[in-house]
Amino acid sequence: MDTDLLLVVGLILLGLALPPIVGALSEGRAPKAASIMVFAGGSLVVLALNNHTYKLDEVPEAFMRVVARFIH
């Protein structure tokens, strides 16, 4: 699998996990589903970084490459 795609999907999962974590913690319950999303997203990001060392300025370019691939 392409490292750009792994990075982008992992970062999106991590971003989508933040609101459920805050909501669960504010209500005093355990963020079970969000913790699974954090684990999956973090695993994908680590796998992508293990195969390709990204610099911070390359991350937006990786997003654009993945979006462009799905548009065309």
From TrEMBL:
The chain crosses the membrane at residues 33-50. The keyword Membrane applies. Keywords: Membrane, Transmembrane, Transmembrane helix. This is 50S ribosomal protein L35.
